[in-house]
Fold this protein.
Amino acid sequence: MDFLHYSPEDGWFGDPMPLWHDGVYHIYYCKKYQDNTLGWGHISTQDFVNYTEHPDPFPHGAPGVPFNTGCVYWHDGKFHAYYAGKDTDGMSILHAESDDGVTFSYPGEICFRRPEDLYRQDETWRDPFVFYDEDAKLYRMVFCAKGPENGTPDCFAGKIGQAVSSDMKTWECLAPMDLSGIAMTLECPEIYRDKDQWVLIYYWHETRFRTAPTPQGPWHRGRVISPDHFDFMAARHMYDGDRHFLIGWLPRRECDCQERIWGGHMLFPRELRVEDGTPKTRFVREIDAVFPKRSAAFLPSSFTFCNEGWTPTETGFTASSPVGGTLAYAPDLPDTCLIRMKVSLSNPNGQMLILLGTHTGTKNSPVTENGYQIMLDPSEHLIRLRKHYIWDQRNDIAVIPYTFDKDGTVSLEILRHDGILEVGVDGEQTLVSRMLTDAHGGIAFSVQDTTAEIADLSIYTRD
């Protein structure tokens, strides 16, 4: 099957748990069924283009199956699933096995129960992740937790719990890592080794990163703490021996606003690099196979120029509007497409808008009156996504920090599909969101108070 942004027919996609094994990328995920219960789902791929949808790893609604995020680890000829569970004696970390990675044993066996003297007795004790520490010759487990303290004024009480094992059968639960004061909860934690550094991934409002010289810390943040920002939720990492990947998901909304509803769609996979403590992501290179055809319908000569100042070039435009603005547009942009361009702005106090989903709102209104704005704003060091309409009084739908280089140049990859928008910036970070009310329509460029060069403009489609 071909899934660009996957979600199961009988529910919604959440917290991924990816694993690479024997040439196959397995993506287990926390699944919210239509009856509002939680379980796990499973898809796999070998190329990020064609996917196989597998039966749910655990029976829906059966006792002892996962109802939250965990992990799957390959060891000694079997797939091992770890997850938190609740019984009459409290919370435990459970373990289930599978020979094929498709169907797991249940109910899971208990690895260890929650120690009351080390961890708070609440719902934050969950989301286990297992990794191997070669230096210590130990399997380590980390999980979301809070310390046992109650009644203090510190609301940033999130901690990362930990346990160790020499054989993945017998586990010893330890006191949590000392990460006080950085988050209310550190959901879906993961630790992995990347050459001479250890990387910590966790979720609190956004998927965040820290690095350390050892798996015990101390954990430092880089210049950018979240390369994919607010709506790239609860992402997890996998490694295939060559590339590091990051798999995240986009929540649902019912309006063009900052509302978020748990469960949504898997976002397009990312390649992940962590350089000098700073995480960077870009669409996996397989995106070229997903969008193989360059559209001839959106060459520079096909645009309509509403004002003076535009000069078509072989690969784009130059636009000069040192005072005021100027607009160019093309109608009927494909609903599913990949747009690539390089933009240079001469004036740091000017800005450029990329309008998507443009269309006429009323009988006599302009064809660019409605839609969305991707706003490049060097003076404020931001890239914004806003609703574009005549009464422009709404807050940003999404925003990411971005410092333009000294010549005001930025490279963009804009992926649009079925109301989902992903904007790759310089192959280092992305803005992701949904376009709910105006998912169809054209594209336009508005250059305001600056001279702009739009180069290497290409629009790719799937067929």
